[in-house]
Amino acid sequence: MKQRKRRVDDRKVAAYLFNLPGFIMFCFSIVIPFFLGINIAFTDWNGITTTYNYVGLKNFISVFTDQRMLLPIRNSLVFAVLG
Fold first, then answer.
1. Is 43 in a helix, a strand, or coil?
2. Which end of the chain is more exposed for a tag (fewer CB within 10 A), N or C?
3. Who contacts 67 (Cβ-Cβ below 8 Å, separation ≥6)?
4. Are the C-beta atoms of 69 and 63 separated by less than 8 Å?
């Protein structure tokens, strides 16, 4: 008996379909919040109001030039490297 040729392997399609729900959950729980957080980092939004302005790197400059933030930043870097 001659097997018919398939353009797309059924096993590959099944593998993608089984992985699709996990990929969707990953996108909604990790990827989308990550990029929204990056967007919020460049604004002056206070977390309550619906209006905000883009301030660019002003937030980052104020954090890294504040003397009270140097110790927590150093502790976080040490923890990340040693961990």
1. strand
2. N
3. none
4. yes
